[in-house]
Design a protein that fits this description.
Number of helices: 3
Structural class: mainly alpha
Shape: elongated
Radius of gyration: 14 Å
Helix content: over 70%
Number of strands: 0
Length: 77
């Protein structure tokens, strides 16, 4: 039981870290030197990845997932 809880916390931390990395990559895409469709596609892909990661996180922790993500991304600035 204790190991399972620890594994879940590790998975939550991993997902939050991945979401943060996708967010930061999207931010770099916005300020990057590439323009046009390739920039749009890059940012869209990052946002889609964040959505999938959010779904995975929500399946682990429920509706509190979005608050966890907001806290994590709030510390990225």
């Amino acid at each position: 039981m204790m190991l399972e809880a620890q594994e879940q916390r590790s998975e939550v931390a991993r997902l939050l870290s991945q979401i943060s990395a996708e967010y930061e990559a999207a931010q770099r895409g916005v300020s990057g030197i590439s323009y046009g469709m390739s920039q749009h596609e890059f940012i869209t892909a990052r946002m889609e990845n964040m959505g999938q990661l959010h779904n995975q996180l929500q399946s682990l922790v429920g509706d509190v997932a979005i608050a966890m993500i907001a806290d994590k991304l709030g510390s990225c600035h």
